[in-house]
Task: structure prediction
Amino acid sequence: MKYDAEVKISLKKGMLNPEAATIQRALALLKYQVENTKTLQIIKFSIEGDSEDIVRQKVDEMCQKLLCNPVIHNYEIGIAPED
Amino acid sequence: MKVAIIRFPGTNCDRDVYHALELAGGEPEYAWWNQRDLSSFDGIIIPGGFSYGDYLRAGAIAAITPVINGIKDAVKAGKPVLGICNGAQILAEIGLVPGVFTNNSHAKFLCRWTELKVKTTRTPFTSMYSAGDIIKMPIAHAEGRYYNDEIQKLKDQDQVVLAFEGENPNGSMEAITGVCDEDGLVCAVMPHPERASEVILGSDDGLKFFKGIVNY
Result:
């Protein structure tokens, strides 16, 4: 069975996000006053697997081995049967 | 002293490091990312550049290539390993040194000379300096801000190698810009000693990094 996987990577709470800070300042130049700007990274792919649980476990391994750095990142995994 | 200079797609300081190692009296040789066995070398340097385009995070993709196994074996065998700039980011990604080098606090690429304080001389690379020496070497990075959630442990274990003196250009924790592992054999520095290896370049303060590994 084929699944669509989505990994959403964010910085841990309290980590400085210079990209978000720069975007927020640029929005302010356009007179948009916003707060708590964040940037996140989303990685999507399709993957073959016997069940949602097995696929989730595999994607979790990918996060720990490559996609995220546990020192600074949190991640959320979304798995759904392919459309 | 036969020293491997590791090349990844996107490495661009390899030839500078080769030159600096020759100046220091070493025998440099290039090794590619897919070379699993580095046992014929006495030491390893991972030079700077933009391996794999800095995709995902600086150093993240280089950190899973076959040559990393060779580097880990060399560390187990007690051989010295130095990562410079992108090489430092790679060593942090592998976890051979603690912490992470991430986006500069002001979100821009910094390429300039800096003054640095040598914090420990127990690594082979800093063994020819005196603790407290102020040296001049350039930085060139967008992801060089050092972050570590166990900073006290790092200091207690004498793992801080270099710190910016005066201005802290990238927002690093406690101005730290060079760290080593617990044994002091694996060293990761953001500044470029090879770009400060001859007076004609503006400083030869960095040459002792290479003399240190050659004399180890």
About this structure: The two ends of chain A are 11 Å apart (CA to CA). Residues 2-81 of chain A form a domain with the Mth169; Chain: A , fold (CATH 3.30.1280.10). The longest helix of chain A spans residues 52-67.
